[in-house]
Amino acid sequence: MPFGECTITLQDVAYQLGLPIDGEAVSGCLTDFENLMENGRPAWEWFRELFSELPPPNKVKQMTVHFTWFHERFRVPPANASEEIVRIYARAYIMMLLSSQLFADKNANQVHLRWLPYLASMEDLGRYSWGSAALAWLYRCLCHGTNRNVVNLAGPLQLLQSWIFWRFPSLRPSGFDVFEFLLASRWATYLPTTDAGDQRVVSARLCLDRFHDRDVSRLAFALRSSRSCLL
Asked: CB within 10 Å: which end of the chain, N or C, has fewer?
């Protein structure tokens, strides 16, 4: 790994996913977001205007819609779709992308309505710094993942995995040395196997999982001693 780099940066987000890292901030309240909508419009009323229909009650949970409804309802647009129908399908795709990929949480099977204000004007989507927001969300999820009671990791994990393979060539699967922009696009055809590289990753993870407090102390002492010898 190159010296001086130890974490994912905005440059990595731009190179790996091609998301804009300049522009207006992606922000808003996650709990009372409905009060911030245009003219205090109810969220479900706005949903009907943007998607021309409402999901069935069994696919709704508070302010979220089950992912399967979006996937089944807006999977493929009709062949003779009008421009407005295409826009509806595009909104649905973006909703799924935001909720299940860039800003996924542990309820990745739910699509949250908090993204409606951004979809109301699709022409303005490019004004926002989506890369900065995705990176901030990944940092938050990684921080939360250090809790000993947390067993699952959320966030834009495709960014994390692609960054690891890019920065740590020894962990990169064989046959993926040729790259292009976007860097993460080359993993679209990657299927995990039980090759030697994957076995090294598994072995390294097992070693880390078996670490105890005393092992960490010994490792820190060894690092300090080796640094003193170099100086």
From this structure: C
* Residue for token pair 């949970």: 61
Do 138 and 86 lie in one domain? The reply is: no
Closest CA to 87 of 137, 125, 57, 114: 125
| pLDDT tens digit sequence for 26-75 | 876 555 555 555 555 678 888 898 999 999 999 988 888 999 999 899 98
Residue 192 pLDDT: 65
Q: Indicate the pTM of the whole model.
A: 0.73
Beta bridge partners of 66: 110
In this prediction, residues 193-218 reach a mean pLDDT of: 58
Instruction: Provide the domain limits for residue 211.
Output: 10-14+131-226
Shared domain check, 189 and 120: no
Q: Say if CB 187 and CB 165 are below 8 A apart.
A: yes
Instruction: Give pLDDT tens digits for 154-191.
Output: 889 889 988 988 888 888 887 777 777 888 887 777 76
55 and 72 share one domain: yes
Q: How many domains does the chain have?
A: 2
Helix, strand, or coil here: 32?
coil
- pLDDT, averaged across the chain: 79
Give me 139's structure tokens. 């940092």
In a domain, 199, yes or no: yes
Kindly state whether residues 80 and 48 are assigned to the same domain: yes
In whole angstroms, give the CA distance from residue 92 to residue 73.
9
| Cβ 113 vs Cβ 29: under 8 Å | no
For residue 39, the model assigns a pLDDT of 55
**Separation between Cα atoms, residue 39 and residue 36, nearest integer Å:** 8
Hey, is 64 helix, strand or coil?
strand
31 and 120 share a domain? yes
